[in-house]
Write a structure and sequence with these properties.
Shape of chain A: globular
Shape of chain B: globular
Order of helices and strands of chain B: EEEEEEEEEEE
Strand content of chain A: over 45%
Number of helices of chain B: 0
Radius of gyration of chain B: 13 Å
Distance between the termini of chain B: 37 Å
Strand content of chain B: over 45%
Largest sheet of chain B: 7 strands, mixed
Radius of gyration of chain A: 13 Å
Largest interface: A-B, 26 and 27 residues
Helix content of chain B: under 10%
Oligomer: heterodimer
Number of helices of chain A: 0
C-alpha cells in the first residue's frame, strides 16, 4: 500500500461546477500538506500549502486537512476549462522531501 | 523573478551511456531536490541538498545515480550505464531554507533506447 493514495480519475465536470479532489495517507507524522497542478509536459505548480490541520482559502481554491482521519481535500469553485490538468497532493513530515500521490486528472468541459 | 530552470529539456540516449542533467534553482534558495516522475505517476524523491551537502540521498535507486552541488547553487544529476528503466521525467525543485514549499522546474525528459 502506498503512503499517499489518490484516485487517478479522470474526473470530468462541466464548466462552473465545484470540484472536490482528495487524498488519504497513512503516515501520521506528516505535518506539511501541499497541492500542485501539473499541465501536460510541464513541471508541477504549487497551488496551496497548509501546515497541520484546518482550512485555507485562496481565490477559487480551498484546501482542507483532517489529520484525525488522515484525509486532505482541495475544492475548486466555478471551475474553468483552464483548470483542466493533473492535480497532485504532496506532504512531508519536516518540510523537506515530499511524498506525492499519483495525481488526479481533471477535465473541465465548456 | 526567474524560476527553476533545467537543461536539457529532452535527452535521448542509448542504453549503457552516461548522462548529466542540470538544475538551476531560484536565486537564494538553499534547499534543492531531485525527483523522478514516470508516466501517469506522481514524482518520487531521489536526493535533497541543503547548501553543498547531500542531506538525504535515500531515494537514489542504485549506485549508478549520483548528484552534486559543488557551490551550493547549480546541481547536476549524473546517471552512469543508463538502462531503459531509467526513462522518465527528472524534476528539480528548490526551497527557501526555512519553508516547506518547493518550487519545481519544467523537468528533463530522459529516454533511454
Amino acid at each position: 500500500q502506498k503512503e499517499v493514495e489518490q484516485d487517478p480519475g479522470p474526473l470530468s465536470v462541466p464548466e462552473g461546477a465545484i470540484v472536490s479532489l482528495n487524498c488519504t495517507y497513512s503516515n501520521s507524522a506528516f505535518q506539511y500538506f501541499m497541492w500542485y497542478r501539473q499541465y501536460s509536459r510541464k513541471g508541477p505548480e504549487l497551488l496551496m500549502y497548509t501546515y497541520s490541520s484546518g482550512n485555507k482559502e485562496d481565490g477559487r481554491f480551498t484546501a482542507q486537512v483532517d489529520k484525525s482521519s488522515k484525509y486532505i481535500s482541495l475544492f475548486i469553485r466555478d471551475s474553468q476549462p483552464s483548470d483542466s490538468a493533473t492535480y497532485l497532493c504532496a506532504m512531508s513530515w519536516a518540510g523537506n522531501m515530499l511524498t506525492f500521490g499519483g495525481g488526479t486528472r481533471l477535465m473541465v468541459k465548456p | 523573478g526567474a524560476g527553476v530552470s533545467q537543461t536539457p529539456s529532452n535527452k535521448v540516449t542509448e542504453k549503457g551511456k552516461y548522462v548529466e542533467l542540470r538544475c538551476d534553482p531560484i536565486s537564494g534558495h538553499t534547499a534543492l531536490y531531485w525527483y523522478r516522475q514516470s508516466l501517469g505517476q506522481g514524482p518520487e524523491f531521489l536526493i535533497y541538498f541543503q547548501g553543498t551537502g547531500a542531506a538525504d540521498d535515500s531515494g537514489l535507486p542504485n549506485d549508478r545515480f549520483f548528484a552534486v552541488r559543488p557551490e551550493g547553487s547549480v546541481s547536476t544529476l549524473k546517471i552512469q550505464r543508463t538502462e531503459r528503466g531509467d526513462s522518465a521525467v527528472y524534476l528539480c525543485a528548490s526551497s527557501p531554507q526555512d519553508e516547506g514549499t518547493q518550487y519545481f522546474g519544467p523537468g528533463t525528459r530522459l529516454l533511454v533506447l
